[in-house]
Amino acid sequence: MTLERPDDARLTAPHVARNRDAIRAVFLEHMPRSGQVLEIASGTGEHAIHLAAALPGVRWLPGDPDPHARRSIRAWIEFSGLSNLADPHATDAAAESWPVAEHAPFSAIVAINMVHIAPFEAAIGLMRGAGRWLGPDGRLYLYGPFRRAGRHTAPSNTEFDANLRARDPRWGVRDLEDDLLPLAAEVGLELHTVVNMPANNLSVIFRKA
Ligand SMILES: C[S@@+](CC[C@H](N)C(=O)[O-])C[C@H]1O[C@@H](n2cnc3c(N)ncnc32)[C@H](O)[C@@H]1O
Q1: What residues flank ligand 1, with Cβ below 6 Å?
Q2: Which residue, judged by its Cα, is nearest atom 23 of ligand 1?
Q3: Whose CA is nearest to atom 9 of ligand 1?
């Protein structure tokens, strides 16, 4: 659910307030503190603001293919007054070319709550993009629910997966070992860290080998 404000373009997704501090803690421990960070599927833009504020040494490039999302991201950037965020890009992770790649190399590529709420082609495209445009030692950060080696990690994730697939049969909770690790290996990414997060989510960080 996303809430609109009557007076400006900023959108609010209630789950962001619940998970943003835990995600920020993982960034401060495991992610680069400098360079350019490309965020794919920024949604409302609230995570972008929260993370860019905590990482003043990075230039944060948020974006989303949805124009309503981009309006919200722009409005949050203006509201925040932060100077280390770029105007939002419109990258579709599944597309063959990413115009934002003209800014590569990136020290990190970030996708929060995207790979399960998009066709699997988006996950494939994200991995390929990370393989091509991350700099040496660059990190790919994924956040969300994941299956592990064929099994859901909690009953709530089993239910969420069924709910996602009912909404769109191309969506669904991805399997870290069976779906994502083979894609990562194909593009020269190795699994760096997996951090258990609240509400049966994971932070999954890949490193460019
Ligand atoms: C559940 S929202 C997550 C937004 C935000 N990251 C968050 O956690 O609040 C999923 C987002 O993925 C975006 N999205 C869907 N398919 C995509 C694709 N192929 N490439 C990039 N973004 C995509 C949608 O526009 C939407 O904003």
Answers
A1: 13, 16, 40-44, 47, 64-66, 69, 92-94, 112-114, 117-118, 122
A2: 41
A3: 43
pLDDT, tens digit only, all 209 positions of the chain: 677 776 789 999 999 999 999 999 999 999 999 999 999 999 999 999 999 999 999 999 999 999 999 999 999 999 999 999 999 999 999 999 999 999 999 999 999 999 999 999 999 999 999 999 999 999 999 999 999 999 999 999 999 999 999 999 999 999 999 999 999 999 999 999 999 999 999 999 999 98
How far is ligand 1, taken at its centre, from the CA of residue 63, in Å?
9
Tokens 């939002």 -> residue: 88
Taking CA atoms only, the protein residue closest to ligand 1 atom 1 is 113
Q: Where do the domains of the chain lie, and which CATH numbers do they carry?
A: 3-208 (3.40.50.150)
Residue whose structure tokens are 């951090």:
195
